[in-house]
Amino acid sequence: MAVALARDIVDGERIISGAHTEISFAAAMLAQKMHTPNIKLQLGGTCFLVNVTDLPVRLPKTSTDYRMLRWAEIAYDHMETFMYFGAPGGRAYYKGGRPETNKYFVGDKFFAGGIQVDGDGNANMIGLKGEGGRRFSFRGPGSIGITDIVTVATPYIFVTHHDRRTLVPKVDYISMHGPNGWRRNKFPGHGPKWIITPRAIFTFDKNGRAQLSGTFVGTTADWVKENTGFAFALDPELSEVADPTAEELSVLRHEIDPAGVLRH
Q1: 72 — phi, psi (to 5°)?
Q2: What is the spatial distance between Cα 242 and Cα 6, in angstroms, rounded to a whole number?
Q3: pLDDT in tens, the chain (264 residues)
């Protein structure tokens, strides 16, 4: 998952990684070491890093590891991230042509988790509905800062399990809207681009519905259908995601994550 996300990061982008998103943090570090030397990575809504490739702190268990503030270009309160720094040029910002020098800290990519995700790309971090008048049968961590990311150009949804309990017909609560909710609420940006799991990558068709676009090696479309709770079509360009290269694995395992955080 980290390698697949890293390959989709473009040089010069601003990457925002949340409180417990070590997969996307690893992806940003891998991308910067491999092919995007000029990306910037914001962690935990509290610091903005220019160069994450040579941090003395290797991949942490949480991106709110405040030791990394020592190497930050700038540090600021979380609310300033989205409330005080609007996109230059307004909505035109999201159509491309962003100035090379941009003092505004508008994110290009953001990675949101979900304890539930549905086929419309809605993600739920709030909890599961209870029975007998109970509001929750299970309480998640909550939306936290996810509701603030409507200024980010392109979010991604990631889950660490691919099963019918996680990928459901309809989420119980919405922490982050899918593409149609994004449009309906007139948020700037494009809305979610992917749902990525340990077995597959879903993109969204023109109607904002999830479609299977990629499978990781060893996973078939039939397996995905059997283990996914929502119905989906097959992307006409459905393909198998290329295995990590020897170089990608070496950098990831030895330079970024020698402690094996991603394997735990």
Answers
A1: -80, 145
A2: 13
A3: 999 999 999 998 888 877 778 898 899 889 999 999 888 887 765 666 766 666 666 777 676 677 777 777 777 766 666 555 556 666 676 676 655 544 445 678 989 889 999 999 999 999 999 988 788 999 988 887 777 677 788 999 999 999 999 999 999 999 999 999 999 988 877 889 999 999 999 999 999 999 999 999 999 999 999 999 999 999 999 999 999 999 999 999 998 899 888 887
Ramachandran angles phi, psi of 178, nearest 5°: -80, -175
**Two structure tokens written together for 22:** 């070590």
Token pair 């961590």 is at which residue?
141
How far apart CA 49 and CA 26 sit, in angstroms, is 14
Q: Closest Cα to residue 81, out of 30, 147, 133, 141?
A: 147
d(CA 38, CA 242): 25
Residue 48 main-chain phi, psi, to 5 deg: -125, 120
CATH top class, domain 2-263: alpha beta
| Encoded tokens for 143 | 């939306």
d(CA 35, CA 96): 20
Q: Where are the domains of the chain?
A: 2-263
* Tokens (6 digits) for 21: 């998103």
Write the DSSP string, 143-168.
Answer: -TTGGGGGG-SEEEEE-S--STTTEE
Asked if residues 9 and 105 have their Cβ atoms less than 8 Å apart, the reply is: no
Residue given tokens 């070590």 in the structure block: 22
Enumerate residues 6+ apart whose C-beta is below 8 A from 51.
Answer: 32, 71
Of 252, 227, 258, 259, give the one whose Cα is nearest residue 25: 252
125, 146 in Cβ contact below 8 A? yes
Q: CA-CA distance, 244 to 189, in Å (whole number)?
A: 30
